[in-house]
Amino acid sequence: MILQTIIQVAAQCGWSVTANVRYGNITSFDFRRNTESGVPFCFSADMTGGKPASLVDDILSFIDAFQPDIFARQWCRISGAGESRYAQTLSDMDGIRIQAWLLAIDLSEAFSAPRPSPWYLWN
Fold first, then answer.
1. 35 and which of 40, 58, 74, 92 could share a cystine (Cβ 3.0–4.6 Å)?
2. Per-residue pLDDT for 123 more than 90?
C-alpha cells in the first residue's frame, strides 16, 4: 500500500516513478518528468525501513543540494548549447526544484507526516 500511494501521489504531481527494493529495507525511487521546455529530468531518492518520512527527507536533501544555476551551466556546456540556452535551462531547473518541493509536501501530507518547512528558508 505504501508503494502504491507513493506512485499515485507522484503521478498526481506530474512525476512518473519506478521503485526498486535494495538491501531488503531500502527502496530506491526514480522520479521522472519533463521540464517546462520538454527536456527529460530524473532524480532518485531512497526510503528506508518502509517509512515514507525517510523518502520525504531524502527528497528534501535533493532539493537542498540541487543548485539550478550550476546544473544549468553544466548542462549547457555538456550539451553544446553554450550560453544561448542558459536562461531557459535555469528557468527549467528552478521549476524542477519547485516541482520536487511540491512532491515532498504532497507525500508528507499523504502519510500525515509534519509538513516540511519551506525550502527557501534553508539557505
1. 92
2. no
Percent of the chain residues topping a pLDDT of 90: 71
Residue 123 within any structural domain of the chain: no
Query: How far is Cα 75 from Cα 69, in angstroms, rounded to an integer?
Result: 10
Host domain of residue 105: 1-113
Length of the chain in terms of residues written? 123
Separation of alpha carbons 28 and 55, rounded Å: 9
pLDDT surpasses 80 at 82: no
CA distance 120 to 79: 29
What are residue 17's phi and psi, to 5 degrees? -145, 145
**Reduced to 3 DSSP states, what percent helix, strand and coil does the chain have, rounded to the nearest 5?**
55, 20, 25
H or E segment to which residue 98 belongs: helix 86-110
What is the per-residue pLDDT for 117? Answer: 60
